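stage 2 :: seqdesign
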């Protein structure tokens, strides 16, 4: 049986090979397997002229002679090594072939062909297609050390103009200064359009790639201090705005362009679909881009200068504030009724974030800083919490009388409501007393939640990191990632269940039983949330349990006596 199976397999393979060799048509060999670059960075080729048949009545017109273009120089690379990052600069317009941040590990900000700057583009002022400016590098190795700045100078020509681009690297920041100088050596005014774009793929959310750097999920820009966001890169469209800055934004990282000279405009564009040649896949992939563009007209013998700051790094509040980019951190807004608008959570989120960073500078551990921050918030709201608990206790003690009224006025809802309110008024109990203090705390707790959600400082920050066993970190070695052992989410669920059991209930017993299901639901919700958030929630539950025990201890005898009296009544 095995021999016949082997013979059948050999015959099938022979037939397949013979069919391919003798029967399938052979096509021309592909001339290039080079991966296409993003459209905004590519140099479009002029259309090939087609031969036109001459008419019988007139001789064919002579074609207009075109000046041959000089051969494009070979691409050269310059390596820049700085304390905070490592970069590789190309002579093709000064674009970055590599940019890896030295921030809590190595975080790449550039993927060639998919994400990163496309270099300096130049085009005539009449709106013709732009091309990458081929330039010469002043150096191929640059080391940024100490407190000294380092410059990389690139020189080239485009549209009959001399272009000088100076890239200035700073040792203590993730920002880079781009200074442009364009000279007109001719005898007539010349116009030119200069563009500095940063390109990204649109479909980052649909990829399963393990990439520890920036995955842009939205485009954000500022116009007269007003922040606009597009959180769907597939519907970016094309627009030009007079803004202060624009950026490709993700939760923890930002790539932003900040014009520092007048005459620049911010251009946000989407080039639709381009073929992707990655792993043989030719499915169309859309791209979006941000750019700054200037269109100066330079007189003969004159020069034009402009400056743009490029920031590519983590969204640390202090670093962003020095460049005016602090609003790129999205704290969201607390929803209110439509007539009142919304409460900007940055008013509360920024102080909490600064307080957490200040605490970290003194304790040296972000996990301990989160615990202390939670304790401080509980202490500040302790009077409101006590008032809420006392109101809920009073409601619980009056519950037997309320149930008696429900039985007595079962068929008269209006009388039931009237007698119930009279009962509350007699015993000086406010039915909303247990809710209003909690409502006042919700914005603060929500701001704490948001501050921990957007804090890049928690990335790769350890809390209680003991050992790495079989590829799993024990216990919490990254507060921005979920707990790989799931111990902390389970502990959070247990503390939440104990808190629910200890909380006084004054409503329907069936509703109280439904509330006991909330800890199980929250446990599953928190399984894959960042450990910093779960730690904050767990500590908050533990403190709530301690507060409840402290309040119940001195009032236990008095509460029992009042409950008996209320039952007799």
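stage 2 :: out
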């Amino acid at each position: 049986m095995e021999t016949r199976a082997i013979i059948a397999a050999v015959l099938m393979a022979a037939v397949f090979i013979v069919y391919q060799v003798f029967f399938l048509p052979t096509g021309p060999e592909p001339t290039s397997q080079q991966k296409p670059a993003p459209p905004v960075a590519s140099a479009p080729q002029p259309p090939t002229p087609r031969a036109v048949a001459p008419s019988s009545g007139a001789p064919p017109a002579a074609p207009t002679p075109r000046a041959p273009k000089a051969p494009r120089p070979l691409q050269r690379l310059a390596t820049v090594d700085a304390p905070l990052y490592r970069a590789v600069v190309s002579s093709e317009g000064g674009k970055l072939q590599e940019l890896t941040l030295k921030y809590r590990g190595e975080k790449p900000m550039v993927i060639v062909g998919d994400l990163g700057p496309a270099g300096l583009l130049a085009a005539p002022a009449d709106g013709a297609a732009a091309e990458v400016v081929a330039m010469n590098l002043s150096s191929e190795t640059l080391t940024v050390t100490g407190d000294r700045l380092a410059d990389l100078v690139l020189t080239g020509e485009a549209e009959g103009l001399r272009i000088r681009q100076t890239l200035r690297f700073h040792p203590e920041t993730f920002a880079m200064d781009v200074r442009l100088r364009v000279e007109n050596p001719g005898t007539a005014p010349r116009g030119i359009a200069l563009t500095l774009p940063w390109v990204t793929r649109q479909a980052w959310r649909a990829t399963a790639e393990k990439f520890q750097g920036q995955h842009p999920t939205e485009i954000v820009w500022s116009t007269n201090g007003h922040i606009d966001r597009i959180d769907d890169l597939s519907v970016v469209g094309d627009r030009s705005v007079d803004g202060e800055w624009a950026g490709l934004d993700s939760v923890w990282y930002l790539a932003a362009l900040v014009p520092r000279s007048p005459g620049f405009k911010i251009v946000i564009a989407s080039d639709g679909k381009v073929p992707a040649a990655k792993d043989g896949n030719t499915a169309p992939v859309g791209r979006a881009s941000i750019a700054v563009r200037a269109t100066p007209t330079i007189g003969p013998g004159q020069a034009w200068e402009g400056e743009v700051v490029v920031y590519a790094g983590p969204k640390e509040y202090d670093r962003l504030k020095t460049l005016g980019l602090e609003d790129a951190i999205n704290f969201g807004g607390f929803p209110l009724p439509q007539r009142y608008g919304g409460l900007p959570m940055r008013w509360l989120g920024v102080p909490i974030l600064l307080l957490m960073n200040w605490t970290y500078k003194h304790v040296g551990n972000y996990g301990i800083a989160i615990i202390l921050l939670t304790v401080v918030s509980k202490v500040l709201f302790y009077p409101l919490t006590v008032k809420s608990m006392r109101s809920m206790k009073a409601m619980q003690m009056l519950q037997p009388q309320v149930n008696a009224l429900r039985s007595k006025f079962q068929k008269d809802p209006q009388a039931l409501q009237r007698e119930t309110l009279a009962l509350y008024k007699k015993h000086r109990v406010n039915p909303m007393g247990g809710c209003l203090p909690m409502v006042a705390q919700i914005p603060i707790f929500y701001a704490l939640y948001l501050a921990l959600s957007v804090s890049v400082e928690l990335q790769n920050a350890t809390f209680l990191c003991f050992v790495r066993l079989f590829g799993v970190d024990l216990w919490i070695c990254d507060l921005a990632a979920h707990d790989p052992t799931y111990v902390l989410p389970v502990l959070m669920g247990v503390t939440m269940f104990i808190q629910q059991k200890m909380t006084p209930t004054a409503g329907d017993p069936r509703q109280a039983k439904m509330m006991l299901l909330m800890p199980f639901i929250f446990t599953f919700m928190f399984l894959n949330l960042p450990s910093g958030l779960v730690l904050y929630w767990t500590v908050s539950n533990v403190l709530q349990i301690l507060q409840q025990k402290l309040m119940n201890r001195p009032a236990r005898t008095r509460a029992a006596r009042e409950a008996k009296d209320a039952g007799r009544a």
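stage 3 :: structure notes
- Residues 1-67, 206-210, 273-283 have pLDDT under 50 and may be disordered.
- The radius of gyration is 34 Å.
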